[in-house]
From TrEMBL, chain A:
Family matches, as InterPro entries: AAA+_ATPase, ABC_Ni/Peptide_Import, ABC_transporter-like_ATP-bd, ABC_transporter-like_CS, Oligopep_ABC_C, P-loop_NTPase
Source taxonomy: Bacteria, Pseudomonadati, Pseudomonadota, Alphaproteobacteria, Hyphomicrobiales
Location of this chain's protein in the cell: Cell inner membrane
Tagged with keyword Electron transport: no
Keywords assigned by UniProt, alphabetized: ATP-binding, Cell membrane, Membrane, Nucleotide-binding, Transport
GO MF terms held by the record: ATP binding
NCBIfam families assigned to the protein according to its UniProt record, in alphabetical order: oligo_HPY
Function: Involved in beta-(1-->2)glucan export. Transmembrane domains (TMD) form a pore in the inner membrane and the ATP-binding domain (NBD) is responsible for energy generation.
Domain spans labelled ABC transporter: 4-254
Family as reported in the entry's similarity comment: Belongs to the ABC transporter superfamily.
The protein's name: ABC transporter ATP-binding protein
Keyword Transport: yes
Main localization (coarse): membrane
Signal peptide: none
TrEMBL record, chain B:
Ranges where the ABC transmembrane type-1 domain occurs: 95-304
UniProt subcellular location: Cell membrane
UniProt KW keywords: Cell membrane, Membrane, Transmembrane, Transmembrane helix, Transport
Chain ranges passing through the membrane: 12-30, 99-122, 134-157, 177-197, 235-261, 281-307
Pfam families linked to this entry: BPD_transp_1 (PF00528), BPD_transp_1_N (PF19300)
Chief location category: membrane
Coiled coil: none
Membrane topology summary: Multi-pass membrane protein
Entry-linked InterPro entries: BPD_transp_1_N, MetI-like, MetI-like_sf
Protein name: ABC transporter permease
Length: 329, 313
């Protein structure tokens, strides 16, 4: 059953030079306990999508339209108070920058306690005990000492563990992780990803993972949604997507990933790049959003925007030319 | 921490010594001969000479300074030329009203200015923000005595809600004491409130952009908790600094305010002493104010460590 159903999400920002359509008509769903990855390059609207789900977009200048149904409720129709009861409780979020995402002047313990006290109605002692439990769970040594420490006394990896502890403290149904490992050392990245997966299973949460790191996607996601210029251009189960990407943009993304050890094997080739830039989202786009950068683009692409079409099992892509069900491996 | 406070206390000694030297030099820098002033209009040159000798004004500068400092270190601020009372006694009598006025003003400022600044920052660009900031400009531009007379006219003379002037010690009850201080505190606090509200707004605007505020929202915290706990504590360092610096403003403003509202405090004493060229009293008061100011600065530095755990000495 779908835990989250997003339909025709449009998040627009009013700017002095016109309306910026950061997210323009995106629909997707997340099942209970599932891990969905949203990938795309910087500025494709993946972070704005996640912020919109939490209604953390300042309005104005932003404006969110469409529908976001979570556990049967349309989040966009809730009052601020009802929305607050969901944030940090049913849906919680981990951000990219562990160095700046924790409040520097409050103790780690207080920052974990807060959500428990607001959402679960725990008193200070109970919340403190639970906070220590959470720190143990995310693998922080000496949790009893650490709860009384401040963020600047912790390393980057430790801080991201604390963020995870805060996010999971109330056992949310959905965890949104916005580039949770981008700012961390590679060795720490793997630990944090593993931790997120372990805890997700424990709590039974679904995850929306926002990333541009396809290695991470392959590792932990079950389904992938590719975004480009504020729209969804392709969606498929992870194995299917890596095996037979249909959209030229997805193919470009996969082609731009360096292969470890290729120079040793003597098979080094120039990394494929996607020429050009993301279109200006403040101007109306006719035709396919990717047409300007696509090697295969024709007049058809420049005039008519392709709709999302079934291209394989649970696999959709928005491209006039992506072959339908070509590969059946 | 304790060793830091001790070190800071020791470090204030040279500051106080320089202040003392400066204060003492006043006597020599200022025009007019104190001996002539004390002796009065009808005195003969012999009378003036006698007074000069009895006050030690004929001795060399350094010797006068040395013995003056020596006496101060023993708690003796000298004797008023005009009233013949010990300066410390005179200051002691006037300390209560001034201290009361300053504390009430300080509390009023913090209670009014900080929330105003926070709300202005939260609603930045809105009508409320512009109204608050407009009010702040207004508060800046009006001199203390204008505000004072306006308040006294409206609330004391016309509406008769509060007394026009005077002072009642706290020993006679909390309300009689406070009643006399409300209008002076508002008059004196206007500039101060404007200053602190502006700084609070600026500091909060910056803090509200930070990632941890977004985290706080994502945790489902209410607006009040986000503004007054997560944001304000981070904005506290500049605010505390300005509140501290403002105490110097208060000292200057208290002199005028006490005159407007006829409060028998140090401000009045200062003016009277200046008019009478009562040097020992002037010196005593300036020394006291300097000492208070140095102390306030120390307190500001200590407050930093309370609001921001990253600051350690």
């Amino acid at each position: 059953m779908a835990l989250l159903e997003v339909e025709n999400l449009q998040t627009h920002f009013r700017t002095p030079s016109g309306i910026n359509r950061a997210v323009d008509g995106v629909s997707f769903h997340v099942n209970e306990g599932e891990t969905l990855a949203i990938v795309g390059e910087s500025g494709c609207g993946k972070s704005v999508t996640s912020m919109s789900l939490m209604r953390l977009i300042p309005e104005p200048p932003g404006r969110i339209a469409g529908s976001i149904r979570f556990a049967g409720k349309d989040l966009l129709k809730l009052s601020d108070r009802e929305m607050r009861a969901i944030r940090g409780n049913d849906i919680s979020m981990i951000f990219q920058e562990p160095m700046t995402s924790l409040n520097p002047v409050l103790t780690v313990g207080r920052q974990i306690r807060e959500t428990l006290m607001i959402h679960q109605g725990l008193d200070k002692q109970a919340a403190e005990a639970h906070a220590i439990e959470m720190l143990t769970l995310v693998g922080i040594p000496e949790p009893k000492r650490r709860v009384r420490e401040f963020p600047h006394q912790l390393s980057g990896g430790m801080r991201q563990r604390v963020m995870i502890a805060i996010a999971l403290a109330c056992s949310p149904k959905l965890l949104i992780a916005d580039e949770p490992t981008t700012a961390l050392d590679v060795t720490i990245q793997a630990q944090i990803l593993k931790l997120m997966l372990d805890l997700k299973r424990r709590v039974g949460a679904a995850i929306i993972l926002i990333t541009h790191d396809l290695g991470v996607v392959a590792e932990i996601a079950e389904r992938v949604m590719v975004m480009y210029a504020g729209r969804k251009v392709e969606e498929a189960p992870v194995a299917e997507l890596f095996r037979s990407p249909r959209h030229p943009y997805t193919q470009g993304l996969l082609g731009a990933v360096p292969k470890l050890g290729s120079s040793l094997a003597g098979t080094t080739t120039r990394l494929a790049e996607i020429p050009g830039q993301v279109p200006d989202l403040r101007k109306p786009i006719t035709g396919c959003v990717f047409a300007g950068r696509c090697a295969l683009a024709t007049d058809l692409c420049r005039q008519y925007a392709p709709g999302l079409e079934e291209k394989g099992p649970r696999h959709v892509a928005a491209c006039h030319y992506a072959a339908k069900g070509a590969v059946a491996a | 921490m304790l060793s830091y406070i001790l070190r800071r206390m020791v470090a204030t000694l040279p500051v106080m010594a320089i202040v003392a030297l400066f204060v003492f030099s006043l006597l020599y820098i200022a025009p007019g001969d104190p001996a002539v002033v004390i002796a009065g209009d009808q005195a003969s040159p012999e009378d003036v000479e006698r007074i000069r000798q009895s006050l030690g004004l004929d001795r060399p500068f350094l010797i006068q300074f040395g013995s003056w400092v020596w006496r101060i270190l023993h708690g003796d601020l000298g004797t008023s030329i005009f009233t013949n009372l010990p300066v410390s006694t005179m200051i002691g009598q006037r300390l209560g009203p001034t201290l009361s006025l300053m504390i009430v003003t300080l509390l009023l400022t913090i209670v009014v200015a900080v929330p105003l600044g926070v709300v202005a920052a939260w609603k930045a660009g809105s009508f409320i923000d512009r109204a608050i900031m407009g009010f702040a400009v207004f508060g800046f531009s009006l001199p203390v005595f204008v505000v004072g007379y306006m308040l006294a006219y409206i609330f004391a003379l016309e509406l008769e809600w509060l007394p026009v002037q005077g002072y009642t010690p706290m020993t006679e009850g909390l309300w009689p004491w406070l009643e006399n201080l409300i209008l002076p505190a508002i008059a004196l606090g206007c500039v101060y409130i404007a200053l602190v509200a502006r700084i609070t707004r600026a500091a909060m605007l910056e803090v509200l952009q930070q990632d941890y505020i977004r985290t706080a929202k994502a945790k489902g915290l209410g607006q009040g908790g986000i503004l007054f706990i997560h944001a304000l504590k981070n904005a506290a360092v500049p605010i505390v600094t300005v509140i501290g610096i403002g105490i110097a403003l208060l000292i200057g403003g208290a002199v005028v305010t006490e005159s407007v509202f006829a409060i028998p405090g140090l401000g009045r004493l200062t003016i009277d002493a200046i008019l009478r060229r009562d040097y020992p009293v002037i010196q005593g008061i300036v020394l006291l104010f300097s000492f208070v100011y140095v102390l306030v600065n120390l307190m500001i530095d200590i407050t930093y460590t309370l609001v921001d755990p990253r600051i350690r000495y």
